[in-house]
């Protein structure tokens, strides 16, 4: 039942691409304010950034409505997903998640000896919370939920997830990865962070890589109970891997409301364009809540990727639910036009 990812013959980071739509990066970032802050602080790079990091933590705590002791920083949320996996699974156990899901935490858990208990998404692409709860056993050390989910771009109902996290976290901690939550419209962005204030054993991951366009500057964080963070920080160190200019850039990015709005609006415009263009060619697609979307393709994934890479368009290809899928990130409108032109040549 496990989903599978295809790789092209040219290693992905080395492919000479003119439309780079394979890593869910934000084509507009970093924000002008973040860039300015990064440049202006670079000369301070002879010092460790602990003081500035504490300022950033306080700012994030304010923003999230939690206390600073509930925040742990990392150079990207990947670092925190991986550290969580190492600490939680160093003595084995299993991790319950959706299938397909974002694999970074799960891969590390498996590599230190855990087993993965995948639970297929439902037909409406939401998490099968009932089946996930049933999959929890005495060996389950963590439940991982990515909402909105990657690689599908789809959502699970907020209230159902709140109920699930509240109930299940009595038995086992729940990790909710909200990397893409900020692409939702104002009002629809409903985080699980408030559960931390209710004392629930949930861990919420956020990143500056997506809406803030800072994937290469490496800043992310988790929000959790102090005891959970202590458990992680007894073994690993939070925030040590973030460079001083990146700390300043993150603080500035949080204040750049115009850039955040621009990212959200242009991302939604590109999604609409791709929906229309795919529909006009007779393709199905899965409506997305993120900065990427998937659609089924009738071609083996590796062959598809090689043909797209030849046209200098980078995308991803997966196999699940008995189908091959293309996942395309939203780039600039020009990049999306290159993508649809390449689809015409490769698939139509
Ligand atoms: N979580 C999800 C769901 C992602 O898609 C990604 C990156 O693509 C990450 C976490 C990790 O991002 P970063 O390490 O840049 O914060």
Cα Rg: 20 Å
How are the strands ordered across the major sheet?
A: 3-9-8-7-6-4-5
CATH homology group of the largest domain: Type I PLP-dependent aspartate aminotransferase-like (Major domain)
Q: Name every ligand kind in the structure.
A: pyridoxal-5'-phosphate
What sequence of helices (H) and strands (E) makes up the elements? EEHHEHEHEHEHEHEEHHHEHEEEH
Low-confidence spans: none
* Shape by Cα distribution: globular
Number of helices: 12
Tally of discrete structural domains = 2
Structural class: alpha/beta
Distance between the termini: 29 Å
Number of beta strands: 13
CATH topology of the largest domain: Aspartate Aminotransferase, domain 2
Query: How much helicity do the residues have?
Result: 25-40%
> What's the overall average pLDDT, rounded?
96
Q: Architecture of the largest domain, CATH level 2?
A: 3-Layer(aba) Sandwich
Top CATH class of the largest domain:
Alpha Beta
Largest sheet: 7 strands, mixed
Quick summary of this structure?
By secondary structure, the chain is an alpha/beta fold.
Summarize the structure in words.
The protein has 348 residues and is α/β, with parallel strands linked by helices. The protein has two domains: 4-28 and 258-346, Aspartate Aminotransferase, domain 1, CATH 3.90.1150.10; 32-255, Type I PLP-dependent aspartate aminotransferase-like (Major domain) (Aspartate Aminotransferase, domain 2, 3-Layer(aba) Sandwich). 39% of the residues lie in helices and 18% in strands. It is built from twelve helices and 13 strands. The protein has helices at 32-41, 50-64, 77-89, 104-111, 129-135, 158-168, 194-197, 226-233, 244-255, 257-280, 301-310, 333-346; strands spanning 4-6, 19-20, 71-74, 94-99, 115-120, 140-146, 174-177, 202-207, 220-223, 292-297, 313-314, 316-320, 323-329. Strands 3-9-8-7-6-4-5 form a seven-stranded mixed beta sheet, sandwiched between helices. The protein has a four-stranded antiparallel beta sheet with strand order 1-12-13-10, with helices on one face. A two-stranded parallel sheet has the order 2-11. Strand 6, helix 6 (158-168) and strand 7 (174-177) form a beta-alpha-beta unit. Helix 1 (32-41) packs antiparallel against helix 9, helix 2 (50-64) packs parallel to helix 9 (244-255) and helix 3 (77-89) packs parallel to helix 4 (104-111). The longest helix has 24 residues, at 257-280. It is globular and about 55 Å long. It starts with a strand and ends with a helix. The mean pLDDT is 96. The structure holds pyridoxal-5'-phosphate. Pyridoxal-5'-phosphate is lined by residues 24, 76-78, 102, 146, 150, 177, 179, 207, 209, 215, 220. Belongs to the class-II pyridoxal-phosphate-dependent aminotransferase family. Histidinol-phosphate aminotransferase subfamily. This is Histidinol-phosphate aminotransferase family protein. It holds the Pfam family Aminotran_1_2. GO terms for molecular function: pyridoxal phosphate binding; transaminase activity. Residues 20-343 form the Aminotransferase class I/classII large domain.
């Amino acid at each position: 039942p496990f989903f599978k990812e295809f790789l092209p013959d040219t290693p992905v980071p080395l492919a000479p691409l003119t439309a780079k739509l394979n890593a869910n990066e934000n084509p507009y970032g970093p924000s002008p304010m973040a860039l300015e802050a990064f440049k202006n602080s670079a000369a301070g790079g002879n010092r460790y950034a602990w003081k500035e990091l504490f300022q950033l933590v306080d700012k994030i705590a304010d923003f999230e409505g939690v206390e600073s002791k509930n925040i742990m920083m990392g150079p990207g949320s990947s670092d925190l997903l991986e550290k969580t996996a190492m600490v939680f699974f160093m003595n084995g156990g299993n991790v319950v998640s959706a299938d397909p899901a974002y694999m970074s935490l799960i891969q590390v858990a498996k590599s230190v000896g855990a087993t993965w208990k995948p639970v297929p998404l439902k037909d409406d692409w939401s998490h099968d919370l009932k089946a996930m709860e049933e999959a929890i056993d005495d060996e389950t050390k963590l439940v991982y939920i990515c909402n909105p989910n990657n690689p599908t771009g789809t959502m699970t109902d907020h209230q159902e997830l709140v109920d699930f996290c509240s109930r299940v976290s009595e038995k086992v901690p729940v990790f909710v990865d909200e990397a893409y939550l900020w692409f939702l419209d104002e009002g629809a962005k409903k985080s699980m962070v408030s559960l931390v204030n209710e004392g629930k054993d949930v861990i919420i991951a956020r990143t500056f890589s997506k809406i803030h366009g800072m994937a290469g500057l490496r800043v992310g964080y988790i929000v959790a109970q102090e005891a959970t963070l202590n458990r992680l920080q007894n073994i690993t160190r939070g925030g040590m891997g973030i460079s001083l200019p990146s700390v300043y850039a993150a603080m500035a990015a949080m204040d750049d409301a115009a850039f955040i709005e621009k990212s959200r609006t242009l991302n939604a415009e590109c999604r609409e364009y791709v929906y229309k263009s795919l529909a006009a060619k007779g393709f199905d697609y899965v409506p997305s809540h993120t900065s990427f979307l998937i659609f089924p393709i009738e071609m083996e994934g590796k062959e598809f990727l090689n043909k797209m890479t030849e046209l200098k368009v980078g995308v991803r290809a997966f196999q699940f639910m008995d189908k091959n899928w293309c996942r395309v990130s939203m780039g600039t409108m020009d990049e999306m036009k290159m993508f649809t032109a390449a689809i015409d040549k490769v698939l139509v």
